[in-house]
Design goal:
This is Col_cuticle_N domain-containing protein. It is a multi-pass membrane protein. This protein is an all-alpha fold. It has a domain of 58 residues. 60% of the residues lie in helices and 0% in strands. The longest helix has 29 residues. It starts with a helix and ends with a helix.
Length: 109
C-alpha cells in the first residue's frame, strides 16, 4: 500500500468518525448531497476565518477609547445615631470579680 493511499484512508477514517459537526455527513454522503455538505462546511470555515481576521486586526490596532465623566453633587448626609448595645456599665463591670458575680447581682435587682 502506497503512502498516498494510507494518507487517503486515514483522512477518510477521520472524516467518518470525527465528532466535528458536518464532516461525517459530508464524508458519508454521495453525489449532490456530498457537494452541498462540503459547500456548507467551506462557507462555515470561510466565515470563521473572516471573523478571526477581523478580531485579530481590531486587537492589533490598539485603539484605546476612554471616556470619563465625573459629576460631584451634594447629597444629604443621613443623621447618625450611635447606640450602646452593651447592657452592662463599664464602671460596674470593673467592680465585679467575675461574670458569675455580675450575673447574680443583675438578676437580683
Amino acid at each position: 500500500m502506497s503512502i498516498a493511499t494510507r494518507i487517503g484512508n486515514n483522512f477518510r477514517d477521520f472524516g467518518e468518525h470525527t465528532s466535528a459537526h458536518g464532516i461525517p455527513r459530508a464524508c458519508v454522503s454521495h453525489g449532490l448531497r456530498r457537494a452541498l455538505w462540503f459547500l456548507v462546511l467551506f462557507c462555515c470555515v470561510a466565515a470563521f476565518i473572516l471573523q478571526a481576521i477581523q478580531i485579530v486586526d481590531k486587537f492589533l490596532r490598539h485603539d484605546i477609547i476612554v471616556s470619563v465623566e465625573l459629576r460631584f453633587e451634594r447629597i444629604p448626609f443621613p443623621s447618625v445615631t450611635v447606640c450602646n448595645l452593651n447592657p452592662y456599665k463599664n464602671s460596674l463591670a470593673r467592680e465585679m470579680g467575675s461574670v458569675k458575680d455580675t450575673a447574680m447581682k443583675r438578676g437580683g435587682q
